[in-house]
Amino acid sequence: MTLPVTMPPPPALVPMAQVVCEVGALVTLGQAQHGERRYVPLGGGTVRGPELNGTLVEGGVDWQVARADGALDIAAHYVIRTDDGALIEVQSDGLRHGPAEVMARLARGEPVGRDEYFFRTVVRFTTGAPQWLHLNKVLAIAVGQREARCVRLDFYRLT
User: In the list 42, 81, 92, 141, which could disulfide-bond 60, CB 3.0-4.6 Å?
Assistant: First the structure.
């Protein structure tokens, strides 16, 4: 007989910022061991929110593996330049997947609402800027939306 388990309430999510990132053309490396290996160059963009404001430094990369089960493994790596000039490294790892017809619309660059598919990442920050050192101890999640020429990410800090 299995006894019911009482769990405490989940941690809260606190809005941090919305990131809008320009994206380049998809580059494929072809089929690899776990699926199609590819990347998307990341351009400039904006970071606006209650906890973090700045711009994206051009040159980031979003590495991806398009898996046989239709899911996309995501590993993005880029830098935020805050409004006060500090540099913050961002590492974002996650998944994107959804119904085949929705993912086909995304691939064609058509508008797709963020609630029509799953696009979530776990976000970690690294910086040496004294005023932003607290971010080195933050774990955040992002809810993403892919558009034809940009990606929108809403960052939420876990408490």
Answer: 42
> CA angle, corner 43, sides to 57 and 14, nearest 5?
65
Backbone angles phi, psi at 136, to 5 degrees: -65, -15
Residues 72 and 63: their CA atoms lie apart, in Å, by: 10
The pLDDT of residue 88: 98
Per the CB < 8 A criterion, the answer to whether 26 and 148 are in contact is: no
CA 74/CA 79 separation, integer angstroms:
16
Instruction: Specify whether the CB–CB gap between 28 and 37 falls below 8 A.
Output: yes
> What residue ranges define each of the domains in the chain, with the CATH number in brackets?
13-158 (2.40.160.20)
Q: For the chain, give the mean pLDDT.
A: 96
Distance CA 116, CA 156 (A): 20
CB contact at 8 A, 42 and 149? no
How far is the CA of 39 from the CAs of 4, 30, 63, 75, in angstroms? 45, 11, 4, 9
Q: Is 155:18 a contact under the CB 8 Å cutoff?
A: yes
* Token pair listed for 61: 């990369």
